[in-house]
Model the fold of this input.
Amino acid sequence: MIQLFHVSKWYQKDVPALQDTNLHVPKGDFVFITGPSGAGKSTLLKLIFADERPTSGQVLVHGRNIARLPAAKIPVLRREIGVVFQDFKLLPNRNVFENVALALEVLGIPRRDIGRRVWLMLKRLGIHHKMRANPLTLSGGEQQRVAIARALVNEPLILIADEPTGSLDAEASRRIMEIFTDVNARGTTVVVATHNLEMVHSLGKRMIQLEGGRILRGGTTP
Ligand SMILES: Nc1ncnc2c1ncn2[C@@H]1O[C@H](COP(=O)(O)OP(=O)(O)OP(=O)(O)O)[C@@H](O)[C@H]1O
Ligand SMILES: [Mg+2]
Done:
C-alpha cells in the first residue's frame, strides 16, 4: 500500500529532513510515527500524499511512484487519501458543514447524499451542533474534530493524520482513537504522527520511531 525506498528529502542544502528512509505499510495496517519535533514526521506524511516530492528515492502508494506522478494525476491520488493536517487547514470563508461537504462535492456525490453523510460524520465526532459555525470561532479541539470529519467523510482507503489529538484532552483523544480504530477495522490503512507516546503504548499498534530524519525502529513489518 505505502512503500518508501531509500527516500531522502532536502528542503535546504545543509541538513536533510529525511535521510535514506525505508518503510513498508501494508494495506489495512495502523501505524504511529513518533519522534521529537523536527524529526521529519510531517515531511514523511507529506511525501505520501504528494504535498512534497522526495529529493531522491521512491515513494510508492498503491504501486504509483509519487516522485514521478504528473501534477495532473495528484487529485486522483488524493481522492483515496484522507488527510488531517497538523494546522487543520479549514477554510475560513465556509462554515463547518461546508468545509466537510467540500470533500464530497469534489467527488461529484449527489447533493442529497452529501447532506446526510456530512451530518452523520459530524455527529460521530460530536461536533454537529456547530454545523453552521465559522471554523474561526471554534476552539482548537473543535477545529481538530472538523478536520478529522473532513478527512473521513469520503471513506478513504488511506487516512493520514498529523498530530490529530494535539489540541484534545485525554477523553476526546480516546474517542478519536476509537474512531480511527473503527475506520481501520473496516479496511482503511491508517498512518498517524504523534508526540503522544502514552496513547501509542495504550493502543498497542505498530510504532515507527523517527529521529533526525532517520527511522530508528519499525520501518519494516515485524
Ligand atoms: N517547507 C520547509 N522548508 C524548509 N525546511 C523545512 C520545511 N518543512 C520542514 N522543514 C524542516 O525539516 C525538518 C523536519 O520537519 P518536519 O515538519 O517534518 O518535522 P516534525 O517531525 O513533523 O516536527 P513537529 O513534531 O514539530 O511537527 C525540520 O528541521 C524542519 O525545519
Ligand atoms: Mg510535524
